[in-house]
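[step 3/7] fold_predict: job queued, chain A
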Amino acid sequence: MFDFDAKKISWCQTGLSTNGHFQIKMALPSFVKELASDLKLEELDELMKTYTNEDGIIFRFLKNFAKFTDIEFIVSHRSANNPYEEDGIWHDDGSRYLAYSLSLTTQKVQGGDFLLRKKGADNYLTLPTPSFGTFTVFQTGHNGFEHKVTKVTLGERIISAGWCS
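[step 4/7] structure written:
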């Protein structure tokens, strides 16, 4: 799923320390895309439990970038069809050491952009909803960053988001 090649790990570490984030493609099994397409969120949640436990691929990959003992996660489904859909607020994920977002989005989406900035800064980085299997790792308030996600205006955005504590 991930290439643990030292050169790629070094590239990711540089992106994280220089830009506050990096993105890398995660080769997910085809059944994961089927679960996401069919909006089988409970099954995706169960799968993410295996990926984020101590033996899981996400846990082992993220250990290259921070010291932590636990990953909390959610499977987030945001939809343009939700009448309560709205922009998120700037937040920093508190004392968590590192955070990630794994895109399980299988269709075209408008909105749902991920915004990242240094705390209190006026300028920010905008990452549109990434394609299926894109893994975004980003700094949290522990390192002076904050983020938010904008309103989804078209389609269904499915993300597994997690926090390393």
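[step 5/7] annotate
The chain has four helices and ten strands.
The domain at 6-164 is CATH 2.60.120.620 (Jelly Rolls).
exit 0
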